[in-house]
Give the backbone structure.
Amino acid sequence: MIGLIHPAHAQADAMDTLIKFKNQDNIVQSLKPEELDTFTRRTILNVFEVHEHRDRQYKAYPVRPVLDQIFGQAWRAADEIVFSCKDGYQPSIPVAKFLTYDAYLAVASADGSPFILGNTLQNHEVVELGPVYLVWDNLKFPILLEEGAADMPYQIIGIELASFATRFPGMFPPARVSAEVKRGFLHFRKYCMACHTINGQGGGKAPELNYPVSVTEYFKPEYLKRWIDDPASLRYNTTMPALAV
């Protein structure tokens, strides 16, 4: 018996394979992963896969020439690059990091095995990595290993140039705040906002933390700290990773 795929589902699956490149909410180009060949040569990248704690190889395209071709040199003067993923993860990564270290858009496993990984950081959850997966040459730049996996989004369907203060106005702290608040905000921005929202802004993978009631009001401080540092110590089978600091 031959199963038939409804045209609407087929169209939705096709759209899921597209990566939309945007500049301040305006779509510049939409591409399938294989169309990245138009902009730069694919390479085999050796990395230490922090999600699995082992070495892996990926077929990948260097990020800088792709962005040069799509956005022109102007992207290098931008503030942030926001990545939108099918699972709701949405990290905002400073452009300066892409100018300092070598990043790649991985599209397949180099050995032909399924383009998936077992995420040991999230209760060994098995995840699909496509359409593309952002990886860093952490063998060339070992300092990147200290940052964990916060800036390694998979299932990427959107890449957007943005100003952080403009893109996330409800999250950005006021100008006159203490050094402690600024330090806390930078940690939240790097390790939390890709999954969580504050005042409705941020990632869509995990719960809102501030509205209508702040998490600090219903979590005892000692348990909130423990939850952030080691979620598995409080909740069985949680997929929230421990804070990588």
User: Anything to note?
Assistant: The chain has two domains: 7-166, 169-233. DSSP finds seven helices and 13 strands in the chain. The CA atoms of residues 156 and 223 lie 33 Å apart. The two ends are 54 Å apart (CA to CA).
